[in-house]
Every structure is written in C-alpha cells, then in structure tokens.
Amino acid sequence: MVFRNADLPVLFHLSDEIAVARQREAVQDTRRQLMLLVLGAFLAVLPGGWKLGDTFQLAGALSALAYAGVLLVTYRTSRRRAKSQWQLNRSAAEFIKSMCWRYAVHGTPFDADSRDPEGTFVARLEEGLAELRKVGWLDPRDGAAPAGSGELITPAMRTLRDKPFRIRKETYVRDRLIEQRNWYHRRTAVSRRATTLWSATTAVLTLLALLLGVLRAFSVGGSGEVAGLLSAAAASCVAWSEIRRHQPLIAAHSLVEEDLAAMHTAMETTVGEDRWSAAVYETERIVSPQHTDWLVQHRR
Known about the structure:
With 300 residues, the protein is mainly α. The protein has ten helices and two strands, in the order H-E-E-H-H-H-H-H-H-H-H-H.
C-alpha cells in the first residue's frame, strides 16, 4: 500500500496551491522592496548625477522613482495580505493532511474503537478549519471550487483504513514519518547554506564600509556616501535573512528531525497496536507547523 499527497482530498490541494502562490508573491514583494531601496541609494550617490541640461539630474530622478516603487509595493502588499494568506493556507493544508493521515491509519481519535470515525473526522476537520476562518483564512470552497472539493474522505483513505495493522504501520512509517524526516533534513541543509551565504555577504559589505570609515577618519578617503551605500546593502542582506528565518529554522528543523528519529525507532521496536493511535497522534503533533513555530520562538 502506497499513500501519497495525490490521495488526499481536493481541499488539501487547493489550500496547498494557494499557500505556494501566496508565498511566492510575499517573497517577491519583499525582494522587490529591498532591491529598490538599494537601487535608490546607489543612484543617489552616483557622481555627477547624469545631468541633463543645467539642473535636471537623471540619476536623482531614477532614485526618486525607485523609492516611489518601494512605497507602491508596500501599499500593494498591505492590500493583498499575501504573507498572512500564505501562512493561513499552509496551516490549513498541513492540518488537513495531518487529520487525513490520522484517520487513515487509526490515529487518535480515529482508532478502531471509534463508533463513527467518518463522522468524527468530518466534525473535527470542520472545527479546525472554522478556527482558521476566524483569523482570516479564506475557504476555497466558498468560491467557484472545482467538483469534488467537498469530499473530505477519499477512496484511498478508506482503503488504507481497512488494511490490517501491519500494512497501516508500514505505510505510515514509510510514506509519512520517513518522508517528513527527510524533508526536515533537506530543509536544515538548505537553511545552513543560505545562512553561510548571507552571513558572508553581510560580513564582506560591513568590512568594506568599516575600511572606508577608517580611511575617512584619517582624511584618506573621500565622501562617506559609498560607505552609506554599503551599509544599506548589508542591512538589506540582514533583513532578507531574518525574513527567511534561516538561522532559527536550522535549530527548529534539527530538533524536529531528532524527535522523528526517536519516534521512528519507537514505532519499529516498542510500539504495538495498543499504543499505535497515541504514537501517530504524537508524530502528527511533532510535524505540525505550530510546533515548528513554537521551537523557532524558543530556540533562537
């Protein structure tokens, strides 16, 4: 038995697609703001200013346009709320995915003793989504949703749920636990590389600004405008790294990977059918976005 994301309900895929699109939009808007700020500073310090006639300076005009572009992007960002919709739809998608896995493999509260697992699943899922709607999540089903988006329990979920314990366990460990563990390992490696890159870039820019400042202190250097430009570029690098949260995510993802490794060992050695439901529930808690955010806040 193989259970993949394709076997999850349409509502998961709709939320996931919206989350990816809004994430891309939020990241691009932030990148545009930082690049326009640095570009504006660069044009402002150009020697001569590219004069046209006696008074008009083209570089100054382009610098003003760059800063106006920052304001325009900021206004657009505040109206579209891409970042909040990215986070809300990611939370919705991961919540739906987690609930589906718990239902399909008999995780708490959908264990074998549940009298009405399908009814309980739908009720719990709708309760969780209702909480997300209260804080601004836009349910894709409220619009022109495609056919089948209202079906919350797919045939693959029912098929897996009807399988014997051994098959459910093998499927969950392979397609959920190990898959998530590998994902967190990859994300940790990506964050480490990004942290090294942006830290090195910030350090180089700061050292150049420091050198220019020292030279100017001894009246060796010229204007401090170049140092100011380097400072603006370094600040943009720091801001980008903070927005992407590379450094705190390294610690958070490493801890989650360690917890999943311990859970994997337990499931393969000591967890039997009597403790299976609770073990699945705990695994899903570990991989939840809320748990990762909590680690980010407390492991800086």
